[in-house]
Amino acid sequence: MLKINPSPFCVLDEIEAALDDVNVYRFADYLKKFTGDTQFLVITHRKGTMEARKLCVWHNYGGKRNK
Fold first, then answer.
1. Cα–Cα distance between 50 and 24 in angstroms, integer?
2. Contact 14, 44 (CB under 8 A)
3. How far is the C-alpha of 4 from the C-alpha of 2, rounded, in Å?
4. pLDDT digits (tens, 9 = 90+) for 24-43
5. Which of 12, 29, 34, 64 has the fewest CB atoms within 10 Å of its CB?
6. In angstroms, how far is the first alpha carbon of the chain from the final one?
7. Distances (CA, A) of 8 to 37, 39, 66
8. Contact 35, 42 (CB under 8 A)
9. Average pLDDT score, the chain
10. What is the DSSP-derived secondary structure letter of residue 61?
């Protein structure tokens, strides 16, 4: 779909969570092919995906909770 009609922005929320480590790296390499036309916001906890990024913004929702 991205080859036919590239989107300027794409949000992927833990799309690679079920993959093993080898395929996480393959997925990250596959996404790199589309970064010329599309910006990706990838929500992940997988090391392989984070290592493949150009820019990484980290946010932790931990901390004190209101009771």
1. 10
2. yes
3. 6
4. 989 888 888 888 888 888 88
5. 64
6. 45
7. 6, 6, 38
8. no
9. 80
10. -
Between 67 and 13, residue with greater pLDDT: 13
Cα separations (Å) of 41 from 56, 63, 67? 10, 24, 32
Strands 9-13 and 39-43: parallel
State the residue for tokens 């909770």. 65
Q: What is the DSSP letter of 10?
A: E
* CA 52 – CA 54 distance, rounded (Å): 7
Which amino acid is it at 49? T
- Report percent pLDDT > 90 for the chain: 9
**Is residue 23 scored above 90 in pLDDT?**
yes
